[in-house]
Amino acid sequence: MQKAWYNWKTIKEGGEKQTTNNALDLNNLRFAVLIDAENVPRNCIKSVMEEIAIYGTPTVKRIYGDWTSPTISGWKYSLLENAITPVQQYSYTTGKNSSDSAMIIDAMDILYSEKTDGFVIVSSDSDFTRLAIRLREAGQRVIGIGERKTPNAFIAACDKFTYIEVIRAGGEVPIIDRETITGENGENGQKTQAQLREKQYHPPARPRGVKVPDSIVQLIADSVADLAGDSGAVFMGELGNLILKKQPDFDHRNYGYMSLSAMIKSIDRFEMDFRQTTDPNIKHVFVRDKDAN
Fold this sequence. Notes:
Shape: elongated
Mean pLDDT: 78
Number of strands: 11
Strand order of the largest sheet: 5-4-3-6-7-8
CATH topology of the largest domain: Rossmann fold
Number of helices: 10
Helix content: 25-40%
Oligomer: single chain
Low-confidence stretches: 6-26, 171-206
Largest sheet: 6 strands, parallel
Number of domains: 2
Structural class: alpha/beta
CATH class of the largest domain: Alpha Beta
Strand content: 15-25%
CATH superfamily of the largest domain: 5'-nuclease
Distance between the termini: 34 Å
């Protein structure tokens, strides 16, 4: 039986506990994490791995690229800190991403080993679209992580797609670009603290409660209509799952909200119903479209 993407946990709000969605499923799923070093920024890798930990356990962690190229040689410290195995793939043709074929071959080898429940493909390259489709056909969950420039074809091929910009805005502390540690200035070839600070990465501020676009409001309304029974109310977990199936890159964090329930609560069109469970301290959240006939 397929497990739900949205996780529901008990939180304390207004003096009583309520059950609300906060993130993706926390089930201990086994994931193979395959990273395209030529299509993702290295200064976000820690946050990316923390995001992956929400979904499950990364049992395989590999990153692909031509490590003889100076453009990606600075990955060394990030890989050591996150226990990621680099895979060398030489560039046989100038201007062509060398990682694609190696990642695809390894993905199929891992698939047939039957030791994973899903794959996380970290790339902004549409060349992995067919791979994502093939893995899903084999019953694997596929999570994509990439920048906003990622083509829609790859996004749609994933069960869930998260933008690196959203992950970065989630509160990552400033990161020093470790490439600058070995330099020409300072004692023993070390750069000064002032020079290191210049290389720090400061994530952009996350938007706080921005207006939810009309297209997203309509997506939620349509999903409520698809699921609503006679009462017109829909369980929040089922609603979140359907929204992700319709739009894999949907993420409440895109609009500055910490949870789907907080985002829906901010939209006047919807009302939320907190229903009592057998536990007097826990309530389930249901959503109703006030504009529905």
